[in-house]
Amino acid sequence: MIEVRDLRKEYAGHVAVEGSTFEVDSGEVFGVVGPNGAGKTTTLKTVAGLVEPTSGEVRVAGDDPADADTRRSLGYLPEESPLYEDMTATSYLRFFADLYDVPREVADERIGKTLDRLELDRRETRTGDMSKGMKRKVAVARSLVNDPEILVYDEPASGLDPLTTNYVVEFVRDLADEGKTVVFSAHNLYHVERVCDRLIIMNEGEVVARGTLDEIRDEHGGVEYHVETTVPVERSEPHDGNHRVVVENMDEVESVREQTHDEGGEVLDIRTREPSLEDIFLDVAEGT
User: What is the pTM of this model?
Assistant: First the structure.
């Protein structure tokens, strides 16, 4: 569905993206994460056809994303998305539907259903009088007025309260479940971990990790086993009145069992801990 090959983008001699390569499959949620200045927004704008690459190639369904027909099949939501504040939500969305030549009857039905799903009731309120969360929902609805196959969302939940954030993130997952392809960035890695099928981690303009979360864990993280015992063993540390040792595989777990038995103690608990995306992100970013 989306193919990015050796993408490079320079701004006045500054390299924002360098050699990025990845693919996004139809119907998946694809995450783009990284620290500020990593090249996430530039990458998303290039996929949306808003920025021309310095070199490399980007294809959306086999076509140039800057092509007018291709852009009509896209829905783009920037991190900052000012609305026309004198318009109501309904009139604002009708305006954009007209720009896409969506027939009024179709547009009204689509707008109504989308606002129902987003639980936005104040449809005849000026957008300038709305809360930030309500404005963001209107902006999300705007990205859907043309019923696009592909959605490119830059920080869709940026600056929202926790309740609205969770709602928007779950809505992203629902869109993919309905067959739409969603590419989005987020600072909150927990949300990426919840909804993404695959992702890339970017740092200093380059893709430094890619794949499913499990694949990235296997390559950059790994599983830890936290074994709690009643007696000290090799490399253990005091923990809540007992002792805990962290090992990396089941052979080492068995070794701890044997040491504990030899010392006349017991193994109280064995817990598996997988690194979170944030753990992996910090490790990968610091290592590049």
Answer: 0.81
